[in-house]
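User: Quick sanity check before I run a bigger batch. Here is a single chain. Can you write out its predicted 3D structure?
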Amino acid sequence: MSGKSKAKCPFSSAAPNFRYAMGFTLIEVLIAMTLLGIMVVLLFSSMRICAQSWEQGENKITDVNEVAVVYNFFQRHLALAIPVWNDFLTQDEAKAADQPEIGGEVEKGNKLFSFQGKKQSLQFVSVFPASAGRSGMQLFSIQPQQQDGEQVINVTLTPFFPAAEGEEWRPEEVVLLRHVSDFTLAYFGAVEGESESSWQDEWLKKDVQPQLVKISISTTNGVFWPEMIIALKATGGVSNATELGDNDENVTNFAESPE
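Assistant: Done. Predicted structure follows.
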């Protein structure tokens, strides 16, 4: 008996290895699924936070760019406004250019000063560079309008020099800003008969331009718009637009000069 090898019991030392070969227990599977679920929830929550942060950043950049575009528009064109008279327009042409809506009725034989401002509307004459599609002096008419169920700031551009025979100027309209809830203007300059300058709600039927124009804008999307104060480089009057408009170089030099 001693010389014979004893047979190994299949359920003795092999039992532990057999147990692990069968797979995970139910408790282990539940724990693993719970941990996996927690990791997935944390992952998607992090991705959602990142997406929201990205969207808010994009919206903030858009809002800042919008403010910068509007400010640059007024700084580039309103600051270089040219004080001229519409001596070449007839009464019908002045009405076609919508000048009476800003500055009052244009009587026959009378001329209207280019700069006319109300509390919520403004018109002035400025120039585009020679490289632009609409070069030369242009009449800018700015006022809020209703468009597609919302209030917008609309800019109308009309050439401010005599049209060639047989031609007719066609105004071009551009939306400067949408979602506008308030658009208010104020003008700083000396009142006739007074030596000191002050802020005024209107600047009508004068022969000079104001020194400063204050622009207040509010929008429906809650974006903060700081007040913009634009200093006009030229305030005195010019004899007529025809004399200034005879030479594009004269127009450019006048617009760039401080006085």
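The chain has a mean pLDDT of 77.

User: Great, the batch can go ahead then.
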